[in-house]
Design a protein that fits this description.
The complex is a heterotrimer of chains A (301), B (316) and C (250). By secondary structure, chain A is mainly α. Chain A is built from eleven helices and two strands. In chain A, a hairpin with a 2-residue loop joins strand 1 and strand 2. By secondary structure, chain B is mainly alpha-helical. In chain B, the strands form two sheets. In chain B, strands 1-2 form a two-stranded antiparallel ribbon. Chain B has a two-stranded antiparallel ribbon with strand order 3-4. The chains are: A mainly alpha (301), B mainly alpha (316), C alpha/beta (250). The interface between A and B is large, with 48 and 45 residues.
Chain lengths: 301, 316, 250
């Protein structure tokens, strides 16, 4: 039981990290109708920059701020230099161009930081653990990730539903030509939304840096999960992204933690490897089942 | 074409036999790219899991060879099925397996459209990826070495020279068959589904089954490429199912120009040659390949083949 | 004795609580040109989509030659002989005129699971496609891409495609949309030439065309049919004048 609670927390933590990534990606999809395979690159940039600044200055806050700024700036530049030309293009062209961006960023980080993975210390203030329930110590840092995820979710909700910018974003998602006709400068709206998405992805990268290894190509494995999240949630829906992220986080974590033992009860030989593959497949099974019944995801925008 | 026929002799003459090996690899990928173009370019079914069928084909070859070496049966129930080392038999089994898997996954995938289709095909490929990782008998994550190439009566496939021509022959036949297909009645229906599926239905076509059929046909082509790939490297691993390979196949097709058989072939050649040439000059070749792809997208709207066609047209 | 080809019983369609069609009872008699008119948003396109099978009704049923087809999908109804055209031109722009027509013909010749023979050498298909083309004055454009046609010619191609395979019923959704007075006169003549051979349900805003063509007219207002009758009956119907003609002529 205690283990279960711990694993649920782990699942939530992964879920909220995925949410940071998916929120931006789903907005970019919904508002600009753009498939961006390179979204994971901003996550990677965030992680690398944070790890480097942290090593140099020993200040987590500084590392966070510099990383967020860099990721946002990268997003802005990529939008202005490359993606702006592709909004009216076929999705396939976008796939090819953003695939090119992935190659560029991955190799770029390798040229700057080398092939060895970087490691980042958990900031001292957050490095201990607390007893969330009697007998269950849990790392503070992971709790902070959950809290930040929640805060960003609430912040995005307020931004989208209660500000002028949010109103424009929603209008842009539902009717592009209309909002252009109303005189909103769509170019800068797009750049802003894109940079915001990149910044959130960078944020996720900073959060992930002390937990996972910081290495070139780290963006892609998480990108696939992110795509699964937004497809399950329904493309363009931030609410769907939140729900999808938590679902994926929980299914993935709990599956990996408990499926092997569960299977062991029924079959003895080879249970471990079967369970391992089944639990890795879990989220894809989840997605296939959801799409089979709701071809446009849980919250079609 | 003539270049491809003569190439091995030249390579042999200048003692650069690795050229034969890398060209064989390129031709095999060209075939996989053509099969993907059949659904992406002609049918607008953007599959992000096409490598799964390459992987299936490759594993069929490796597993059947593994069992002939091992002396055990592949399975005994409901009937006994022994391993084999005969390339033709293996190709047939591979095509059969790919068709069944494509039919099952296609039944579900084709209910969705657009980006959802992209993602669900990816999901199925990932499932197969993890499935093969878990097959300890067949090497799991480490992959499986083949005891040698599969055999074809009267020729020596172990010889790289011969194997090159075998692949070239199969590629040419496959291109020919694909061209027949896209110019057939069925091919026109698939093109119609790409352009306006709703209208196709109102004309009286049950588009779902036509699209599923096309999906299955494309899968079998990829499986054949997979069998050849396994034979070329004499090694298979779950990485063959990875989304990286699916993505690269898509890039080849788009780079060459969607919806033209030759475009897919050109795309495969250009992409893989660029990769090889760049990597000979710099370790960081991807740093240059990436922006090149972006430039192609922005400035060459219909891929390389499209640009070539326009050149020819404007010269007339 | 008049023979009903296509009819509906209490057809209703709601979108998220909004009624687009309420108890629509339409009867299409064999050989007639039956116009369905009504102000914008009256539910005409919704009605057509339910007859052709793109939308399934919230309640009520559709009958074709006396047999219920309510649950039949679009392509089944098309091969049974209910053919439709679209308000927004839906020809295949990247195919030639002849290819467009051949594709329409192909749909009615059994299955198309032929993977080998080159289709552009299929004489039977090409010949039937040619016949359709010449019937609609498109013979000189046969080799042209449909996307390169003028708007009026595209509309003609759109209608020509519905004639492939000798359907019994044509559902024409605003065939005159956006083609101007000259083109609409020409198309009116073409449609007049089809009279008697097909049973035609014509949704149209061009009142000149409607009055010139229609044997009977049904008027749809706010999703309900308020009157059905001959041209004269409809002209003199008070309810119609109030609800519809009153608006458009003032």
């Amino acid at each position: 039981m205690l283990l279960f609670i711990e694993q649920v927390l782990n699942g939530l933590q992964l879920g909220f990290m995925l949410f940071l990534l998916s929120a931006g990606l789903t907005l970019v999809f919904g508002v600009m109708n753009l498939i961006n395979l390179a979204h994971g690159s901003f996550y990677m940039v965030g992680a690398y920059v944070a790890a480097t600044v942290m090593q140099a200055s020993d200040s987590f806050v500084l590392a966070l701020l510099v990383a967020l700024f860099t990721a946002g700036l990268c997003g802005f530049l990529v939008e202005v230099i490359v993606l702006r030309h592709l909004y009216k293009r076929d999705h396939l062209d976008q796939v090819l161009a953003t695939f090119g961006l992935i190659l560029f960023f991955n190799e770029g980080t390798r040229m700057i930081w080398g092939r060895q993975p970087l490691f980042m210390q958990v900031p001292e203030l957050l490095s201990g653990s607390v007893e969330i329930l009697p007998g269950i110590p849990y790392p503070v840092y992971r709790l902070v990730i959950i809290a930040i995820g929640l805060a960003v979710a609430i912040g995005l909700y307020l931004l989208i539903n209660h500000t002028r910018l949010g109103m424009r974003i929603r209008a842009g998602a539902s009717n592009r030509s209309m909002i252009a006709a109303l005189g909103v400068n769509i170019r800068w709206l797009y750049s802003l939304v894109f940079a915001l998405g990149a910044l959130l992805a960078g944020f996720a990268g900073v959060m992930a840096a002390p937990v996972f290894a910081v290495e070139s190509g780290m963006g892609e494995s998480i990108l696939i999960l992110t795509f699964v999240v937004i497809v399950i949630g329904g493309i363009g829906s931030v609410k769907g992204a939140l729900l999808g992220a938590l679902l994926v986080g929980l299914v993935d974590t709990l599956g990996r933690a408990f499926l092997p033992d569960l299977l062991q009860m029924f079959i003895s030989s080879g249970a471990n490897s079967i369970a391992a593959s089944l639990s890795s497949m879990g989220i894809y099974l989840l997605m296939a089942v959801i799409l089979a019944f709701k071809p446009r995801g849980l919250f079609p925008a | 074409m003539i270049v491809l026929i003569l190439l091995p002799f030249v390579a042999e003459a200048v003692d650069e036999s690795y050229v034969i090996s890398s060209m064989t690899r390129i031709m095999i990928f060209a075939m996989a790219a053509v099969s993907l173009d059949l659904i992406v370019g002609y049918g607008a079914m953007v599959s992000f899991g096409h490598a799964a069928f390459v992987g299936l084909g490759a594993y069929v070859a490796a597993i059947l060879s593994f069992h002939i070496n091992d002396g055990s049966a592949v399975f005994n129930f409901p009937f006994s099925f022994d391993g084999s080392n005969n390339l033709f038999l293996i190709l047939i089994v591979a095509i059969f397996v790919a068709a069944i898997v494509a039919a099952l996954t296609g039944l579900i995938s084709l209910r969705t459209h657009g980006i959802h289709f992209i993602m669900i095909t990816l999901a199925f490929a990932q499932m197969l990826y993890y499935l093969f990782i878990s097959l300890d008998t067949y090497g799991g994550e480490d992959g499986l070495l083949m005891p040698g190439r599969n055999q074809v009566p009267f020729i020596d496939t172990a010889d790289d020279f011969t194997f090159y021509y075998l692949c070239l022959l199969i590629l040419v036949v496959y291109i020919f068959l694909s061209r027949r297909l896209v110019n057939s009645q069925f091919g026109r229906v698939i093109r119609g589904c790409k352009l306006n599926e709703k209208r196709m239905q109102s004309l009286g076509f049950n588009t779902y089954w036509y699209r599923l059929t096309a999906y299955i046909i494309a899968a079998t082509g990829a499986a054949v490429a997979g069998v050849l790939l396994a034979n070329k490297t004499e090694f298979v691993d779950p990485g063959l199912f990875s989304w990286h390979l699916s993505g690269e196949l898509l890039v080849m097709v788009i780079l060459g120009g969607l919806g033209s058989i030759y475009g897919a072939v050109i795309g495969a050649f250009v992409y893989l040659l660029l990769e090889q040439v760049l990597s000979a000059y710099t370790e960081h070749w991807m740093f240059f390949l990436g922006p090149f792809l972006i430039l192609v997208v922005i400035y060459a709207r219909h891929g390389i083949y499209g640009v070539l066609q326009n050149k020819v047209l404007s010269n007339d | 004795m008049t023979e009903v080809v296509l009819h509906t019983e209490n057809l209703c369609k709601n979108y998220a609580g909004l009624a687009a069609n309420t108890n629509v009872n339409l009867q299409l008699i064999k050989g007639e040109i039956h116009a369905l008119i009504g102000p914008n948003g009256a539910g005409k396109s919704t009605a057509i989509a339910q007859l052709s099978g793109e939308l399934s009704p919230s309640s009520g049923s559709v009958y074709f030659n006396g047999a219920e087809v309510t649950d039949k999908p679009v392509f089944d109804r098309a091969t049974m002989g209910i053919s439709r055209s679209f308000q927004v031109t839906s020809v295949f722009d990247e195919m030639t005129v002849l290819e467009n027509l051949a594709l329409a013909v192909q749909a009615h010749q059994g299955h198309s699971y032929f993977f080998w023979a080159a289709i552009n050498k299929n004489r039977k298909l090409n010949q039937q496609a040619c016949e359709l083309a010449s019937q609609f004055g498109l013979e000189q454009h046969q080799k042209l891409l449909a996307g390169a046609l003028a708007h009026g010619e595209k509309r003609q191609l759109e209608v020509a495609m519905t004639l492939a395979g000798n359907p019994q019923v044509l559902l024409l959704d605003e065939p005159m949309a956006g083609i101007g007075p000259g083109g609409s006169k020409e198309l009116t003549q073409l449609l007049d030439g089809l009279r008697g051979r097909y049973s035609i349900l014509l949704v149209e805003h061009d009142m000149d065309a409607v009055f010139a063509l229609a044997d009977r007219i049904s008027v749809l207002v706010y999703g309900e049919i308020i009157a059905t009758g001959t041209v004269d009956e409809i002209r003199n119907n008070e309810k119609v004048q109030q609800a519809y003609l009153g608006h458009s002529e003032n």
